[in-house]
Design goal:
- This protein has 23 helices and four strands.
- By secondary structure, the chain is an all-alpha fold.
- The strands form two sheets. Strands 1-2 form a two-stranded antiparallel ribbon. A two-stranded antiparallel sheet has the order 3-4.
- A hairpin with a 4-residue loop joins strand 1 and strand 2.
- Helix 11 runs parallel beside helix 13, helix 16 packs across helix 17 and helix 17 runs parallel beside helix 19.
- The radius of gyration is 24 Å and the shape is elongated.
- The C terminus is likely disordered.
Length: 486
């Protein structure tokens, strides 16, 4: 990759820092910092040893996933920290990195937030900027939206003091992600600003996340073929950058596409392999939940029940993929008619009903959390509560511009209304109208261009993008095995 000037530790450290902050090249950064660490260990320079050990962690938290890599980097950082003056800002930066890594793996954030307070009082803008970013990464689960957004805004402000372009890009990226996670109508405006900065000069690590968000938006638009192509391009970019999430994110993008296409059973072979990948985050249980739902849809009840039993163990950590796990646990429970799991998942997810089910930094979106809550209520036979959630899901999915999720929610709402069987305005007639609405092409709302006969026939004559081929009330394809035929 590069030729290392042997003995020139300063050169290697500067090359590594440039690779991280300026270029976003995680693979090159690891190479330079590893070389610098080995040379610094031989030379006995404690500051250079610490800078190299710190750089080995990269820009994200939890970049080193395998046990071997993680222990190697952690041991080096502990060794370097012991040789530093504990009052130095470099020692503070190393302690913050160690705290964030430990907090993240434990699903907590208390230690990194305490060190953030220290960083604010230390007077070093670089130490503060790094600690703000680390703290943000430990708060990606639901329930921390406003706190995360404040951290991202503060990081953007600190970038003016550090003079490092990478800090400004990271702050804007985290702000953009926060807005998407909170379903803010200004999220795409923030994304556009970030893309403008990246157009001026590439930053590979942040560009990879932006490309993943664009895949998510294409899935929301219902352009599945295009989304699948973009997902492959995104995975190639992530791999070239050296991002450990390249494979996992690509897998989740395909899972979202296949599930929304009503082809969940096809995912069983790939998910069966992926659940054991050492590249997955220590907190990521979403592949297990996805496999449970796919296995249930494929009719493999034993596998699905076993996976749900594992997932219902002592509290799943509320990581960035926790809501996705809840979504698929509920889908699997619905298919298995497992009321206990449905009730537990409902109780856990209910406080976050108004959030979208987004994985990671905007990698995939399955629509409003009201949808799985409505499915859980259906599983429990609570038709009124299901209808309430699913009406909210339809509204929120429309607001998100998530047309496939809108179709799903409309069909589930039809099921809830049919189950309720109310003879009034929301009885069987309303159920039929909801089915008709669900059949309408999500990419082209009903309007003058849609023949009147299509409306009367429940969408049968619609020339849009979706065709309705069947209904299986207890199936994961209950939204009618919708197929894309644009």
């Amino acid at each position: 990759m590069h030729r290392i000037p042997r003995g020139n530790i300063t050169f290697a450290i500067l090359a590594g820092e440039r690779a991280l902050s300026v270029d976003g090249d995680l693979r090159a950064a690891r190479y330079w910092f590893d070389a610098a660490y080995q040379d610094a260990e031989l030379s006995g320079d404690p500051e250079q040893l610490a800078r190299a050990a710190l750089g080995l962690s990269g820009v994200w938290v939890h970049e080193h996933r395998t046990c071997t890599d993680w222990e190697r980097v952690r041991t080096r950082q502990r060794h370097a920290l012991l040789r530093l003056d504990p009052r130095s800002t470099l020692a503070l930066r190393l302690r913050a990195r160690q705290a964030a890594e430990e907090d993240y793996r434990a699903g907590t954030h208390d230690t990194i937030l305490r060190l953030l307070s220290q960083a604010r009082g230390a007077g070093d803008p670089v130490a503060l900027a790094e600690t703000l970013s680390l703290a943000h990464h430990c708060l990606l689960g639901p329930g921390h939206g406003q706190r995360r957004l404040r951290l991202a805004q503060e990081l953007i402000g600190q970038a003016a003091r550090t003079g490092r372009r990478g800090d400004a890009l990271m702050g804007l990226l985290l702000r953009t992600v926060d807005l998407f996670l909170d379903a803010s109508p200004t999220a795409e405006r923030s994304l556009e600003e970030l893309q403008g900065m990246l157009a001026a000069k590439e930053h590979r690590a942040i560009g990879f996340v932006v490309s993943a968000i664009k895949v998510m938006l294409t899935i929301r638009a219902g352009r599945f073929e295009e989304a699948e192509t973009l997902a492959a391009v995104c995975a190639e970019l992530g791999d070239a950058t050296g991002d450990v999430d390249a494979t996992g994110w690509y897998g989740w993008q395909l899972v979202a596409i296949r599930w929304l296409q009503g082809r969940g059973a096809e995912l069983v072979p790939a998910l069966s392999e992926m659940v054991h990948s050492p590249t997955l985050s220590a907190l990521d249980n979403s592949y297990l939940a996805g496999l449970a739902a796919a296995a249930a849809e494929a009719g493999d009840r034993r596998t699905a029940e076993g996976l749900l039993a594992r997932l219902r163990g002592p509290g799943l950590p509320r990581s960035s993929t926790w809501m996705t796990s809840m979504y698929f646990m509920i889908e699997a429970a619905h298919l298995l008619r497992d009321t206990d799991t449905a009730a537990c998942a409902y109780a856990a997810l209910a406080p976050f009903a108004d959030l979208p089910v987004i994985a990671g930094h905007g990698v995939t979106c399955l629509g409003s959390a009201h949808h799985p809550l409505g499915v859980a209520a259906l599983t429990l036979g609570e038709a009124d509560r299901a209808a309430e959630h699913l009406r909210a899901a339809v509204r929120q999915n429309l607001a998100l511009g998530h047309w496939p999720a809108t179709v799903l929610s409309r069909h589930r709402l039809a099921q809830a209304l049919a189950l309720r069987g109310d003879p009034g305005d929301e009885g069987p007639g309303a159920a039929r109208r909801q089915r008709s609405s669900a059949w309408c092409c999500p990419g082209r709302p009903p309007g003058p261009a849609r023949p009147a006969a299509a409306s009367a026939a429940g969408g049968a004559a619609c020339t849009g993008c979706w065709s309705w081929t069947g209904v299986a009330p207890w199936s994961g394809t209950a939204w009618a095995w919708a197929t894309w035929r644009r």
